Amino acid sequence: MWEDLIHTNIDNNDDEEQQLFDDNIDDEMPVSVTLSTAAYNNFNEESGLWNFKCRSKHSPRLKDNNELRKSIIKRDQWNDSNLVRCSDGCLKGPVLFPDIPDNTGPCGSGWLKREDDDNYSENGLTIHERQRTLNIYTNFAPVKCDIHIRECYNSISKPCRILWDEGDLDCLHVLSRDTAAGDEIGWDFVSMVMNSSCTFSSYCQFKNEMYKTRHNKARFMDQTVFFNFWFSWASNMKIDFHIPCGVCGYGPKRLCCDGTKVGVGFRNSNYEEITETNHALGINNTLHRRMDRCFFENLNGIDKQEMINLRTSLDYIARKELNEIKENKIIPERELLDRIELLKQALPSEVLGSFERFYQMSDNERVAYSNVLKMLATTASITSLVPPAYCYKIQLLLNSPNIENDRFNSIVNETRSFAPELSDLICESVISNNEILPDDIRLFLQYLINESMSLQVTEPEPPVPQLGTYNPEKFGRAYYFNESGLKLRSVRKFSIDNDSCVKRNIDHDDTTLEFEKCQKLYSKVETSARGTSTLFLWFCADHGHCYGFHMTGAEGRKDPALSLYSYLETPPQDVFYDFACNLQEYCLNRESGYYKNEHFFHDIFHGYSHKCSRAFTASRLQGFESVNSEICEQFNSFIQCIKRSARQMSQSHYCFYLQFFLNN
Questions:
Q1: 3-state class (DSSP) for residue 381
Q2: Element (H, E) at 573
Q3: Which PANTHER family does the UniProt entry name for this protein (predicted)?
């Protein structure tokens, strides 16, 4: 680029840079910063890109780039064998100036004298740029290089000038008027972070020790300067982090999520909690609660304890048939018969017929029936066994008494992908009853379908992108569930949120039965440990891609429930979470229309500790072999590499740092 540049412009530019990159800048955001008063200068909402200020417009080269390799080899020659050491330990490097253009300047004058001219120089005419000396930090030493401007040989009027390219052709990132380093320094830090959890201060210390082995006065950048260098270097890559899974795109079918106590200190953060409700939407009625959705739902005329006894009895009968009751827990025969009679009085008429035939069934049919009863004995929603969206598959079979074998086998096989217990029951009942599905089993299945389909729901708000809501720097969240990254729905409040009992419970809305009670040790206070925020993330369960994150004070069921509702237009088919049983309760107590067809599963890592319905166990289903539900735990191990540095950052730096390393 040609520029008719005067010294005044250079002077003004340098003054601004000096203010921006004062070595004593305190990176941390003031304690009193709020969403309304904070200044957000590092993220551009229009482009969706980060930009930490620096002098250089150089786009860092990738690690395996040939240009970078050549530049590194060139800088490796800047050593004690070829250069002289200054008293401060720096090497005196070559003069850096613009290349000689192939044509003349705008004024018509050339950039070189004739070779027979007394003033001829093979480098042309260059002048020192305001006595500017650039400290370039290489792998082995700091190198001082004078920066020159090129001038044309116009002796009549003001000569044309070309500024140095600020390191672009040399793979140098220039932070300020006097500080620069090669791309290799930026990549070296990235490698050390990922391999050894290196921090900014420890990296500076490491480089200082390396420099001192060659000269005891040589020093690497100050920690704060290196901090500013790395962020401006990394942001100059202009990476669009808003990228969905390459296979699933913006419509993921299986997602897993988790929270991790890796965050920025509270005094440096000002994010908005994901639970922030839109009061203009009013308070919606909670249409039903846990005990209204289960198989043995609360009934008028039967008190709470009687309902608990009925569910416990049904669970006992099923487990006894499956040989899951320890000998010292077996109850007397007389008591068992009494319990069976009470169950017969309470069971729906559509279920009673098959239950009365229970002990007359073949061994295999009785085992299959017991597996279904065991799941129905819990307080999990009937929709967890057979979600409404899948009911039509079983209904096809029930509507066709004389169905052909191929069609029958196809439906039964499909059923294994969402309700293998029902698939087994259908198969064993047909095999045990002369290739005919008994009427009592047919009625039983029809009852389950009707109950699932009749669940009342509150329809979700239509998805409408909300401008200005994709800004990780400002809101402490970034999700890639839609093309814009914008929030699609506001969080609504429901009547259950005003229930005093619910407010006191961290992990549930209504207490489950003792035999199915699961626990997750959520933080007992509204902040995570040691004054740091918690990070909550979503991943594609099939391909491991991270779909984004948000910052929160403490993880809870609200985080998965509200982040999906707010940012994903259509919910996935399957969600994996380490507390899936009570996540389902939270979702159906509130946004029931959005989550009515959702399959909730525990991840494998936590599933062994759960006592709830097997409906929350994904390994029982066909077609889940490729799912990596442990991706969150694996990520938790990886993310520890940035933990020590992150806690001291501002929210702005933390979100970029996180996005950068997630991308790598």
A1: coil
A2: none
A3: EXPRESSED PROTEIN (PTHR34305), SWIM-TYPE DOMAIN-CONTAINING PROTEIN (PTHR34305:SF1)
Q: Which of 151, 147, 114 is nearest to 132 (CA)?
A: 147
Which residue, of 391, 425, 453, is where some domain finishes? 453
How many whole angstroms separate alpha carbon 423 and alpha carbon 429?
10
Q: Are the C-beta atoms of residues 416 and 353 closer than 8 Å to each other?
A: no
Question: What is the rounded distance in angstroms from the CA atom of residue 349 to the CA atom of residue 535?
Answer: 49
Report which secondary-structure segment, H or E, holds 49.
strand 49-50
b/e string for 16-45 if b means 16 or more Cβ within 10 A?
A: ebeebbeeeeebebeeebeeeebeeebbeb
Total domains in the fold of the chain = 3
Please check whether residues 21 and 153 belong to one and the same domain: yes
pLDDT in tens, 354-409: 999 999 999 999 999 999 999 999 989 999 999 999 999 999 999 987 888 899 99
What is the Cα–Cα distance from 475 to 484, expressed in whole angstroms? Answer: 15
Q: How far apart are CA 598 and CA 176, in angstroms?
A: 53
Secondary structure (3-state) at 142: strand
CA distances from 111 to 94, 104, 169, 550 (A): 20, 7, 20, 55
Query: Both ends of the chain: CA-CA distance in Å?
Result: 34
Would you say residue 538 lies in a domain?
A: yes
Range of the domain at 536: 254-288+461-663
Cβ neighbours of residue 201 closer than 8 Å, sequence gap 6 or more: 223
pLDDT tens for residues 259-278? 888 777 777 788 889 999 99
Q: Is residue 248 part of a domain?
A: no
Predicted TM-score (pTM) of the model is: 0.86
Distance, in Å, from the CA atom of 378 to the CA atom of 612, rounded to the nearest integer, reads 7
Q: Is residue 244 part of a domain?
A: no
